[in-house]
Design brief:
heterodimer, A: about 260 residues, 11 helices, B: about 290 residues, alpha/beta, 2 domains, four-stranded antiparallel beta sheet
């Protein structure tokens, strides 16, 4: 039936939350545009939204821009996946086994506060190619968040569930696959979502320092080349890419943990 | 089987070959957190007959849950022994692993939130390797149907009311065909009406399977409504202070709650528990000052 569907759509678009969000974004754009036009100090030098939109028309049609986007996306994906493949099992192993935890936790805690960008020089020296260095820095950005979220999630598992499972005659493998893993799944996805956000932050900075492609490089090169509207386009593209990637992970998380639906 | 030294009338009526006899013999449990010895249970003995519905009441911290956890295999005891059908399951040096022969239903419920009710119920048979997943689910489905819970099989625990969850949990315990059901204040924090329905559900389930039940509660009315025998425990250190035989016929109807005998028993158990509650209260006051 088309009518209820339309009502549903209308509700999704015209609810107060959406309305306020739109008003806020439009407001910011208006202030920015006026600031530029009226030559308000600081604002005067930044290209106005109208100029950015004008420049965006050309850039969006340019294949090179999309190549930069794909390059950054690929780097994020590689670093992010590596962080999951290593971080999730490591976090679980640390939660399940005291020995592993005692062994891994101290170095982890020392390395964790080092900002990923501080790793860039070492990464460049260590890895044979720039590409690997960048992927490694991205990996670090997500890795610690993932490990700590998984560890915390698996540790805070409800003792009653473990006891109940034991009472039903679970083997150790059942306990892991059927109790610990599903109980930790929400934390795993929290770690993934936060980690995804960090990878985008890191990829750009890494590309500004090293690398000849990607959205971060594109932004920095625009500045060096004096093309100011492009700087803004680079920034906004990164913002949108990060938002979409995190949203995708959140959606995956929702699908994977159906019991967490709100009622 | 050795003859059971018990004053319970049910020991005479139920054949000894039935399983689920619990012997708690001179059990003492001392907790030792941070070097402070806490004597939770002292020299406590009781014989529970196969198929008996045994309810333990007593003030908070009197060691009811300690006994239950020891029977379940969650921790050891300091002295004495606990036997299940003549087999030693808990002593100072040996604690048998928790197992599906004695299933616990926990105080605040322990359904797995990530599984549907059907998968929760089917969990036991699957991990025990008794049946394949599909078969276990079919078994769970038919059990839920028999217990009048067919329509909640596809729901997750957090989509259900606390009363429904508790019923589902009892079903999850029953599917394992345990010899003993250990229930630790399962209906705590329920409103009176829901509690009544849940109690009747448990009684119907009990009438069907007649497994030994070890049930802990603070609620004296609940104790009398459900039990064959009510054990009143003393305040810490816990011991059995008094045993009340509750001789209402089964299947039991909620109407027994209005009978004269019920009121007499209630007065008796109330008296016994009140004394202990006052002691516990005063001890608590002392600890605080």
């Amino acid at each position: 039936m088309p009518i209820p569907k339309l009502t549903k759509l209308r509700k999704a678009v015209f609810n107060p939350t959406m309305r306020r969000g739109i008003i806020s974004i439009v407001g910011i754009l208006a202030v920015w545009e006026l600031g530029r036009r009226l030559h308000v100090p600081f604002f005067g030098a930044v290209p106005a939204p109208s100029e950015v939109v004008g420049a965006a028309g050309d850039i969006i049609g340019d294949r090179k821009f999309w190549t930069h986007g794909m390059t950054s996306f690929t780097r994020v994906l590689v670093g992010f996946l590596a962080a999951q493949f290593i971080g999730i099992p490591l976090g679980l192993a640390m939660a399940m086994n005291r020995f592993t935890n005692q062994l891994i936790f101290p170095p982890l805690e020392i390395l964790r506060p080092i900002p990923p960008l501080a790793w860039v020089p070492t990464a460049i020296i260590f890895w044979p190619t720039t590409e690997l260095s960048i992927a490694f820095v991205i990996f670090l950005g997500a890795f610690f968040t993932v490990v700590l979220n998984v560890l915390r999630g698996a540790r805070s598992i409800d003792e009653r569930h473990v006891r109940a499972a034991a009472s039903f005659g679970s083997r150790r493998s059942d306990l892991f696959w059927k109790i610990v893993l599903p109980a930790t799944l929400p934390s795993i996805f929290t770690g993934m979502t936060v980690g995804m956000g960090i990878t985008w932050e890191v990829v750009v900075a890494a590309e500004m320092i090293a690398g000849k492609s990607g959205l971060g490089y594109f932004t920095w090169a625009s500045y060096v080349g004096g093309n100011y509207p492009q700087i803004i386009i680079g920034m906004i593209s990164i913002g949108i890419a990060g938002y979409l990637s995190s949203g995708f992970i959140r959606l995956l998380g929702k699908l994977a943990t159906p019991w967490q639906r709100r009622i | 089987m050795p003859p059971l030294a018990s004053s319970s009338p049910t020991t005479d009526t139920i054949a000894y070959c039935a399983r689920g006899a619990i012997s708690i013999r001179n059990v003492t449990k001392i907790y030792d957190p941070d070097g402070v010895n806490v004597l939770a249970v002292e020299n406590c003995s009781v014989e529970i007959a196969p198929g008996e519905f045994c309810v333990v009441v007593g003030p908070s911290g009197c060691g009811k849950t300690t006994l239950l956890n020891a029977i379940a295999g969650f921790h050891d005891i300091t002295a004495g022994e606990i036997l299940l059908d003549g087999r030693v399951i808990c002593t100072a040096t040996h604690t048998a692993e928790p197992g599906a022969d004695r299933i616990v239903v926990f105080q605040n419920g322990a359904l797995f939130p990530w599984s549907t009710i059907l998968n929760n119920v089917a969990y036991g048979p699957i991990v025990q390797g008794k049946s394949r997943a599909r078969e276990a689910r079919r078994l769970a489905e038919s059990l839920l149907g028999e217990l009048g819970l067919a329509e909640i099989g596809g729901r997750y625990p957090n989509e259900l009311s606390s009363g429904m969850r508790r019923r589902a949990e009892i079903a999850r315990a029953l599917i394992n065909d345990p010899n003993v059901l250990l229930l630790d204040e399962p209906f705590r924090a329920m409103d009176a009406l829901t509690k009544g329905v849940a109690q009747e559900f448990l009684l119907r389930a009990y009438d069907r399977v007649r497994k030994t039940v070890f049930f802990i509660t603070h609620d004296l009315e609940e104790a009398l409504f459900l039990a064959d025998r009510v054990l009143v425990m003393t305040t810490r250190p816990g011991r059995i202070k008094q045993v009340l035989n509750v001789d209402f016929e089964r299947p039991r109807s909620f109407r027994v709650r209005a009978s004269r005998r019920y009121l007499e028993l209630k007065a008796e158990v109330f008296e016994a528990v009140r004394e202990e509650a006052i002691k516990a209260f005063e001890a608590g006051e002392r600890e605080l000052t």
